[in-house]
Design goal:
It is globular and about 60 Å long. It has one domain (3-249). It is an all-alpha fold and 251 residues long. It has seven helices and no strands. InterPro entries: DUF998. Pfam families: DUF998.
């Protein structure tokens, strides 16, 4: 096969992968935007059943007409995460082994939280409740850490360097909120000690948790938008190259 034929075949493959990455980015964006609207709907529509300031989002599963939306949203976010990673893989973006593992744990934890609901009581008493607690705790640690690991890898790749800086900022903000949420839950975790009023922040634990989840969704939306832009840029570049080669080969 001639050099021109090899170049044309390579361009076609690059174009196909870029188109697939573009489709995956669009799919992820649609899923994430829907998830944002779904969580906003839950917070507003069922504010009287689950106080968004003090109650965790996990308690939506005990509210009629809210459980299905909540579970579907968690699964959808897991699917969107996998879709983004698959799209980045199509463009041969270097993700890093640590980031891949942490993203995987995040996705598994999301699914576990839907399969094993928490206990509708002040104390965790069932196996399902304990599984939910551990999975939920990992949710608010793994994605920020995955974002930091991914940002370190993306910073060394020209097309993703700027996004890496923004991603790092969002991840660091998520770490701060995750620690803040842990502090608000200390009275529930250390039930043997009577916390004085100024140190008992459970009244705003739900708000901090929701802010943390919002930042985590923002991290994923940022990656999906950048994936879409990079894949579109590569598609345009590939078509321009095909046009130039066609002009050169024309008699």
């Amino acid at each position: 096969m001639s050099a021109g034929g090899l170049s044309e075949r390579r361009a076609r493959w690059v174009g196909a992968f870029s188109m697939l990455a573009c489709a995956l980015a669009l799919l992820a964006l649609l899923i994430l935007v829907r998830s944002v609207f779904a969580m906003t709907y839950l917070n507003i529509r069922f504010a009287g059943d689950v106080d968004p300031l003090s109650r965790a989002v996990s308690y939506y599963v005990f509210v009629e007409n809210a459980a299905q939306t909540f579970d579907a949203t968690l699964v959808a976010v897991a699917v969107a995460t996998v879709t983004i990673l698959a799209g980045m893989a199509q463009l041969k973006v270097r993700l890093g082994a640590l980031a891949i593992v942490l993203f995987g744990v995040w996705c598994v934890a999301l699914v576990l939280c839907t399969l094993f609901p928490t206990d509708n009581s002040p104390r965790v008493e069932t196996t399902s409740g304990w599984i939910h607690q551990f999975a939920g705790a990992s949710l608010f640690a793994t994605l920020p850490l995955a974002g930091l690991a991914l940002a370190r890898s993306l910073a060394r790749q020209a097309e993703w360097a700027r996004v890496a800086r923004i991603l790092r900022g969002l991840a660091l903000g998520s770490v701060v909120l995750a620690l803040g949420y842990l502090v608000t839950r200390l009275p529930d975790l250390m039930m043997w000690w009577q916390f004085p009023g100024p140190l008992d922040w459970r009244a705003i634990s739900g708000l901090i948790q929701r802010a943390l989840f919002a930042l985590e969704l923002a991290m994923l939306i940022l990656l999906a938008i950048r994936l879409l832009r990079v894949s579109l840029a590569r598609l345009r570049a590939g078509r321009s190259q095909e046009s130039r080669e066609a002009e050169v080969s024309a008699p």
